[in-house]
Design the sequence.
């Protein structure tokens, strides 16, 4: 698994836990729905930290909480 897949899975999982749609998430975090959809559908391969922070703010979690999962802990090192 790569980092983008982990980010996508985390966003979808958090939305699922809260019972919210991608459009509702966009509204909560003050981003256009297209920004989130670009991450989820692979159009954006390198989302900005600020975008992830805004998503976290909309979900009421910290960046640390966003990335503190076994899925992120298990990622292989990108630079070999």
Sequence:
């Amino acid at each position: 698994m790569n980092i983008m897949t982990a980010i996508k899975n985390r966003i979808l999982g958090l939305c699922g836990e809260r019972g919210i749609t991608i459009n509702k998430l966009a509204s909560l975090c003050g981003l256009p729905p297209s920004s989130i959809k670009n991450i989820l559908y692979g159009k954006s391969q390198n989302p900005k930290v600020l975008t992830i922070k805004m998503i976290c703010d909309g979900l009421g979690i910290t960046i640390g909480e966003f990335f503190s999962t076994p899925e992120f802990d298990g990622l292989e090192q990108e630079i070999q």
